[in-house]
Prior knowledge:
It contains 19 helices and two strands. With 555 residues, it is mostly helical.
Amino acid sequence: MVDEYGVSTPVENEKSHDSSLGRDTRTVAGLTLVSRVLGLVRDVVTVRVFGDTFVGSAFAAAFAVPNMFRRLFGEGALSAAFLPEYTRLADEDPKKADAFASLTIGLLALVTGLITLAIELGLLWVVLASGDDPQRVYSLKLVMVMLPFMPLICVAAILGGMLQSHGRFGPWAAAPILLNLCIIGAALPYFVVDGADPAAWAYPIGIAAVVSAVLQVLWSMWALRRTVRWTTGVSAAKREARVMLVRMVPVIIGLGTLQLNSFMDTLIAMYPNWIGDTVFGRAYPLDESSNAVLFYAQRLYQFPLGVFGIAVATAAFPALSRVANDEARFGDMLRRGMRLSLFIGVPASVGLWLVGDALIRVLYTGGGEGFSAEGAARASAVLSGYAVAVWAYSLNQLLTRAFYAKGDTRTPMTIALGMVGVNLGLNCVLIWWLREAGLAWSTAGCAVGQTVLLLIAARRKMGTDYVGLGRAVVLIGVGAALMGVGVYLMGLVTGSGEGGGSWWGSVGGVVLMTLVGAVVYGLWSIWMKMDELGWLIAKSTAASPGLHEVSGDED
């Protein structure tokens, strides 16, 4: 309700909580869905160029290195320290916000540019010293080609965060479409060129990724043209910059260790390509195709995570930052975000685990190109490991951002550091029994552990209570179980659940299993009148002051 002075009462704010988070989640999820579908097309195309070969592993590693820095700077430490402060300034002092943004972007471009130059020189030295190892030389050259993607995409990510803080979630959610289109455009001619060499074709595909980063920067700056005035007069924002840098330190330590752990996963998988096929005199359990198997399996579990899990966290972060000082509203929004994450993440875990094998065969084999039968089986085992914790990855994204919104970067850092050690230890042990799948199961187990620790810390540090979550979790769990039964039975009927069969049979099986799962879970949600479904599909209402200011236009 609104009083005589036009101020929203808590009842009105409560409705705005629902509509704002639901609307913004739909915006991000809808555009991310388009991007992820194109991403699947990209993967289908590139896997048929590279297959489960050393070329596929090399391309996956070259793509992972710049993205590691993107997660650290563009979407990690800097974003966590920058966005809450920028959101506050954008509301209170737009001119200072412009100065703060200009200073931050300038520093980011300078630092990441210098890091890129240093790594390029280091890699050049290693390449010159590795003349007798053609696979290592090829892989490192490909990394050198794709490394400029890093500073560009870091800048683009911060620009995207600025758009989100102004309530414009569409432009940045759409930006990855440019990456997918560029890579698809560079890869397709391979299929019409006689005698095309996959190893040679990886270079133009890598260059296309770098070009896409340039386009994403330009696209984001164009989207900000009416919102931000760039300036060289940045002295007014020096204090805010110092605050940001102080907040960054613990996040850099935490995320830096996390990204080192991620790089260790790549190193473990790339060991046969970069170092050798034995370790301490014993045959290494992975081979030259392991990183390709790991990379393309990861892409499938990242689909529901990117479309829905990260969408909820992305939509919630600016709003959580705005209500960080209002414990009641902050707690309410965090609980709603958690319920949305579980509402989508739990059935995604169940469905992906059941459909994964057929999905691998549909997307990554067929037509005599792509993964071999052995590679497809190995990728399916990897996907099963990752799939069980999609819900945990989603909650971790949201809970970590909740701490960041409160200005607490130390707590998630401490928890992350503990999980890094556990994950690395499990990786080194499990690969000897499960090969690449050991890396996936280690990641999933540590994600669940991290979720539990973050939930405990949220209660202790932020006073978060979980009233109302119990019933929601039960309903979501029962709905996901019913959905799983339906999907499993349809898999038996079509033969897809047992593996084998023709490629077209697998296509039909995946479609039918997915439809059955969606119908069963949707009907359960409607029958039980689950609030989460209403939040996602309800039409938006005007956001309340101080919670979420929505731009007049959405690209």
